[in-house]
Amino acid sequence: MTAPLLRVEHVMVQIGGLVAVSDLGFEVGQGEVVSLIGPNGAGKTTAFNAITGYIRPRRGTIHFEGRDIIGLSPERIAALGLVRSFQRTSIFGACTVLENALMALHLRGRAGLLEAFIPLPGRRREEARLRDEAMAMLDFVGLSARAAARADSLAYGEQRRLGIALAAAAAPRLLLLDEPAAGLNPSETADCMALIRQLRDRGTTILLVEHDMAMVMRISDRIVVLNQGRIIADGPPAAIRENPEVIRAYLGGAPEGVGHAAA
Ligand SMILES: Nc1ncnc2c1ncn2[C@@H]1O[C@H](COP(=O)(O)OP(=O)(O)OP(=O)(O)O)[C@@H](O)[C@H]1O
Hints:
Elements: E1 6-15, E2 18-28, E3 33-37, H1 44-51, E4 59-64, E5 67-68, H2 74-79, E6 82-84, H3 97-107, H4 120-140, H5 156-168, E7 174-178, H6 186-201, E8 205-209, H7 213-219, E9 222-227, E10 230-235, H8 237-242, H9 244-250, H10 259-262
Parallel strand pairs: 3-8, 3-9, 6-7, 7-8
Antiparallel strand pairs: 1-2, 1-4, 4-5, 9-10
Helix pairs in contact: 3-4, 3-5, 5-6
The structure holds adenosine-5'-triphosphate.
């Protein structure tokens, strides 16, 4: 058996005096789509922040491709291939969709300072190549027809897709998506699911936090359930749906669709 891409063990995070996550432990294997779910305040965002280097855990270990990443900066972690989705706010609204895509490719570091030293014909070739790559990326997320539009003129679902495309531009090994379907209508959610599947098929492993249970049940290979800062279940959707502790955790004002009792 190969080592998991991500291994989180006994992670404890304190925010102020409060224990936001008490004992987090789960793995994400290469090529999987794993969802992290749980009622409000369960610790999902905190877990994402710890994995991506925005919060330092008090205890525990986080290994990415066998390497301990606790203490590394978010930029360093991203450079290793563990990337978090850009939120809608990180899209430059006043720039065109294509310009946003080009900026994401530049940030990836292929182009950049070095470019200034390339002789002009070479630079033009490099620019044309990047443009082609940016267009291919927009085509991939179904936005090539909108390339010349200002990003803030896109519909909400399109902006979310652009956000995912910008994160995917880094060609990450593991992509963390924070509520990719939030605020989307059913047809936009279907597009978002198709996009996640395409990313997985291209070799990107996906870990997502999502409240849309219908989507989580359909898209996940495995679901990790957090409640009050600890893991209460970890397994394939069919097992999670039937898990009494999960159903209990969600009863009383939880997202619809977990388990038959809550449905
Ligand atoms: N900046 C903060 N200051 C104080 N408490 C915080 C902070 N961030 C998180 N917490 C607390 O830590 C716990 C876990 O919160 P977290 O945001 O990780 O949960 P979540 O599962 O992402 O919730 P939601 O689904 O509502 O986004 C909660 O009790 C929350 O109140």
